[in-house]
Amino acid sequence: MPEARGYAPLKNIKINDKYWNRYTGLVASKILPYQWEILNDNVKDAPPSRCLYNFKLVAGDIKGERKGMVFQDSDAAKWLEAVAYSLASHPDPDLEKKADSVIDLICRAQQKDGYLNTYYTLVEPENRWQNLCEGHELYCAGHFIEAAVAYYQSTGKRKLLDCLCRFADLIAEIFGPEENQIHGYPGHPEIELALVKLYRITGKKNYLNLAEYFINTRGSSPNYFLEEMKKPGFKHIFNEFINYDPVYSQSHIPLREQKTAEGHAVRAVYLYCAMADIAEMNDDKQLLEQCKILWQNITGKRMFITGSIGSSGMWERFTTDYDLPNDSNYSETCASIGLFFFGFRMAEITHESSYIDVCERALYNTIRAGISMRGDRYFYVNPLEVWPAICMDKTSRAHVKAVRQKWFDVACCPTNIARTLASLGRYIYTLVDSGLFVNLFIQNEAEIPINGDKVKIKLETDYPKTGKIKLRISGIHKPLNLHLRIPIFAKNTRILFNGKISEKAVPGKYFSLCCEEPENNVEMNFNIVPEFVYANPLVRANCGKSALIRGPEVYCLEECDNGENLASVYIDTSKNVEVEWKENLMEGTSVLHCRGFKLNSDTDNSVCIEPPE
Q1: Is the separation of the CB atoms in 426 and 13 below 8 Å?
Q2: Quick one: which of 377, 342, 381 has its CA closest to 359?
Q3: Helix (H, G, I), strand (E, B), or coil: what is residue 332?
Q4: Catalytic site residue 412?
Q5: Active-site residue identified among 51, 140, 163, 412
Q6: What is the pLDDT of residues 431-441, one digit of tens each?
Q7: Using a CB cutoff of 8 Å and minimum separation of 24, what contacts does 531-538 make?
Q8: Exactly one of 137, 146, 212, 316 is catalytic; which is it?
Q9: Is the pLDDT of residue 607 over 70?
Q10: pTM of this prediction?
Q11: Dist CA 155 CA 100 (whole Å)
Q12: Catalytic site residue 316?
């Protein structure tokens, strides 16, 4: 049986970070309870979920008609996964009782042969597996598998895991290369990465084999989805899939031949996560190289400065290199979460910190912006420029919302944010052999089993207010290789290791130390300064424009303190930017003051803008 992926056990990491507490601290107290009410359709004026209602229909608890999207089941799965992570770090008997009740409901809705899907059980029972392109059966199964694995790891309870193993066994019988099997693959990738997780925890090789089959057969000729649509009686679930283009689902050519990130952005990065997993498990260097090529295409030519991806609202997709519009882009929250997952996998495999630089940018900007500081409002799409008056229905910007929403008819993002925030602690450190990699600077205390030792770690920081990080590492009886990430933006990094100044660290790399004492102290300090950055001139939307960043955060202008018509503001990038820490703003944040001017729409004269005294 393979070793578990190199994350520190979530239950052994206690985050106590002023910056992140305002989000992670809401998971158990606000986010999950609010989403529980949503899933039970108890929030006034919010789009109804109907998620648990549909399971009650299948279980025979109530009578009625199934409602909601074909993939509605997945909302319950991601909520359960978030609950599992939350219980690992914050035990809550009441929350666990609610989760157990949902698990009981799901298990009662499972069919005798192991099948689990409310849409096809209630609406089209005769059409199981007949519309892989649009039906989302495998997508929903993947999210439930992830939830089952997480819940077992957190609580030790097997009920959901056993339920999903039965379903996975059925899927492994249905799909594969044999003559009596379906030779297809998911329209919406997700189950591939979930099957790898299930293999890691059960050791059943057929799960890994199926994930590998889905990856290797995708995009083969003739295209499975196009052939599927030719079958007698086939009907579309979504009208926009008429005249289907396989580029949408990354199935236009085999994955090992794809050089650019194409199609639906969320589907793409979930798929790339599974590619990275399988490359690692099988030591498949060619597949890993393919992951690197796709990562470079995304981050070098198809990603916004905020770590968001998906240039077009039509098909929620990648378009072409350097097409990065600021006011009509999609930049779905789920897409940045998927990119975050993909990047961390690549960092763990390659030990290259540049992947974490991108993950951190996505985390501190698009992912964090996807939820309010109250924990009950959400952004689905995240454009870089919003003009509220033109966020109108029946326009090219109909997908843009000027304020966060209570919920959505398609509600993948809120529960995705919940599971990401609830599991944030696992990304601070990664473990490889006898080494410990420090990826994210989030204040915490942890006890991590490494090389036979129970290593205690205390990380103290006020990052990103400053670049001061202190690490106390104790409980070492065998040498421990410590790898500190030096962010790409770090200036004048200074590292003090057990009282001695270490050699110069290089931004964008890991800095390695060997801890041999029972107790070791590391102090790292780097400057975080505001910087103006500029896009490649091929990004037509940004010619003549600059962005202002400080550390992992990308800053924006807002009307509340700069007045209306922000497009009329010009900043003098030759002048210094002043940093002011405001303790009472957003529970503590740095505000940047710039010099420049603003065009006056009445007189066409400019008005000078100066920072405060």
Answers
A1: yes
A2: 342
A3: coil
A4: yes
A5: 412
A6: 987 789 999 99
A7: 531/489, 532/571, 532/573, 532/577, 533/305, 535/305, 535/324, 536/322, 538/321, 538/322
A8: 316
A9: no
A10: 0.95
A11: 11
A12: yes
